[in-house]
Amino acid sequence: MDMIAITFPEVKVNTPIKNLTFDTLENMIFDITQTIAYKVFEKALTDIDSNLRHQRKKGLLKNTGKRKKYFLTRFGDICTTHTRHRDKAGESHYLLDEALSIIKNQRISLSRAMIEAYLATDSSYQEVTTQARLFTGYHRSHEAIRQTEPPPLYRTPR
Questions:
Q1: Long-range CB pairs of 118-123, under 8 A, 24+ apart, other chains included
Q2: Domain spans of the chain?
Q3: What distance in Å separates the CA atoms of residue 88 and residue 152, rounded to the nearest whole number?
Q4: Of 12, 26, 71, 138, which one's alpha carbon is 20 to 30 angstroms from that of 54?
């Protein structure tokens, strides 16, 4: 069975206690955990892509290089590199996308899209920008949120 090790780095932050409030401490810890999650998520995607690249069916798929892909997640906007392969018919395949059920041209995680859609059911899009920032720590414009089509919950297998 293929496995991936997800490692959380040890973090130590020194901060002066003078003028420290409960709220600033909470926000500081939230920002740190978001940054750690961001880095761990990017590393996990890179490791999975590397594993899939090495285990691909040799002779059937040709490695044609890496392509950058940006994703808006609960941890922020992450950038990953996905290995592109071509089959004998010339069709492109991204094994990472196929393995993780990432839809072509998907740019937002289902979780982030659902958070924003849920918030938008009871608020204006301008209010959602503030609310989403409280939940995720990251800002998106109200227009970007309004125009987002959330990815489907389920996807038909390839």
A1: 120/145, 120/146
A2: 19-107, 110-158
A3: 30
A4: 71
